[in-house]
Predict the structure.
Amino acid sequence: MHVTVLTIFPELFGPFLETSLIGRARERGLLEIEVWNLRDFTADRHRTVDDEPYGGGGGMVMTAPPWIRAVRELTAARPAWRVLLSPQGRRLDEALVRELAARPALVLLCARYEGIDERVAECVVDQEVSIGDYVLSGGELPAMVLIEALSRQIPGVVQLAESVVRDSFRAGLLDHPHFTRPPVVEGREVPPVLLSGNHAEIERWREVAALRATRAKRPDLLAGAELTAAQRRELARLEQEERAGVAGPASDRR
Ligand code: 21W
């Protein structure tokens, strides 16, 4: 997969692109990423990328011509799906990550200032993407979030093949709790089943624990989740318990 990033702060991407998973994916040729400075596509001596808003008011607006020139030049030889990171975009989730990961090439437009001239979106953008409803200062961190999520969907990038399979199997539910040594922390013991060596029982415990965690912390996810038989049974049991007004063991109420 090929990703081109357009930004006025290319230096923000350096260590992120060199480190860990993404660094290795690039070294192995699974992921190609180019970061371009928008100012390289300006036509004036001052490399201007912003101007005052028509209609007045405060702040500055990113001017359209450098964006349009950049996107046209960077997609001339290699057509790409053009994504503007924007608070007004479709909210990023794993379904959108997969849709985008299926594209052979992406161009990510990262804007700053109060905004970007509307004609950029109209002329050289295929889709606007947001990473959530909170205000950031620009599209660079959202682009990194998107690149990291995308890279995990590229075959061969994540070493632990099993953990990707498991992530997708469990997609729609939260993960079960994890434990490692030491066996006792602040007086709290590891659930004994995890020390039993009984892998079938451990798997059932994890399924039920994932269901419980999801119901306690993100009940909204249950509507779209695909539940196993053990999970449907546990959900029915919890709902029955709730109707009966019975509080479960203290461990359920955390
Ligand atoms: C933030 C630009 C807010 C413009 C109402 C009227 C890209 C982002 C960004 C930014 C405004 C993403 C206002 C989640 C984000 C991004 C910079 C609007 C104020 N509000 N995902 N006027 N959050 N943010 N200006 O901020 O470019 S993806």
Residues 166-252 form a domain with the Trp Operon Repressor; Chain A fold (CATH 1.10.1270.20).
